């Protein structure tokens, strides 16, 4: 029997070991999920909502336990782990209170006696999820899917299996039927067989571009719906009327939040020439004073990366960028200490063709880019294969809105860091994926949008 071992990235010590299930055991769990779906789809919105409110209560009750587990398994600083669990509870309550409205029948006036569109559940949905928000990414998929009448099976990242089992346990504690939400601790080599299982009707993935291409290809060959939320290299335009104190405060938190490991993190800062030097000087000061430390310490600003191999890959990207002509302003040296730590790093004067400009840097490394003017800044932002999030920092909101509308991304925020919100659709374009999560758009991704005509 093979196992999954979780390692604390702050010290390299073993957290726990979990037995993986076999392919046959996974098939049995999916079969049970499909059986439960046939009952669950007939539950009223009110009955589903009651259970979802209970799930929110469970998340509140065990917030500290779940937060500590996330911090141990992937290194998130403890304060941010607590906020992650709080956001999960919010998502539960939002959909419990709003799913019936988001999925209400829509009357369409035709020559029929009665004609309308209805939204019906489709079955067992597979979620392939990443480690960086081990609770929230899963809840973001599972809650709207279940409120729509579907059931979910989860293939979580191997380094956060404790979180995966904790989530399964939370659904059980809330009183959901056994099989409505199931964790599949399987080897990645079984994912293809799981997608091909006749009971799996759709797949959602949050992860890297290569993982997305692989899963989408398999699902496509089997004519199964997919939603892909992939990588991002979010760019923020810093306009010349921006308050530099506020801009650099946002930039520092945006780059170091979740230890720099967020798909929608601020990664590229495109700064107008007139304020470039001043921005870089103040940004460097704030990044330098941000405390790197143990994620369990309440005053730590950012902690270790999730795995040592990911830290080493990031360092290679930094060195490659420097070799290509990028200027190292801060950091860029692997610290001599236990754990997968990497210091706050700034690469400046970047241009298209450099690693730090073209590729996603998934860690505490900021890319600073000089733009001649506003139009050049927009051109630089859009010169990317990614299109998940983007932002504008400005003293003029109207000007910021005009720029935001021209940025090629699924999300564009003015004077605020991009964040997912259950009231708004979330997703990307280009190589950052397709489809949407959250809001009415997200909950309708995995339903049968069905026309009814009565003559």
Task: Explain what the structure shows.
- With 455 residues, this protein is of the alpha/beta class.
- It has two domains: 251 residues, Aldehyde Dehydrogenase, Chain A, domain 1; 180 residues, Aldehyde Dehydrogenase, Chain A, domain 2.
- Helix content is 41%, strand content 20%.
- The protein has 15 helices and 20 strands.
- The strands form five sheets. The chain has a seven-stranded mixed sheet with strand order 12-13-14-11-10-16-17, sandwiched between helices. Strands 7-6-5-8-9-19 form a six-stranded mixed sheet, sandwiched between helices.
- Strand 3 and strand 4 form a beta hairpin.
- Helix 2 packs antiparallel against helix 4 and helix 3 packs antiparallel against helix 6.
- The radius of gyration is 23 Å and the shape is globular.
- The mean pLDDT is 98.
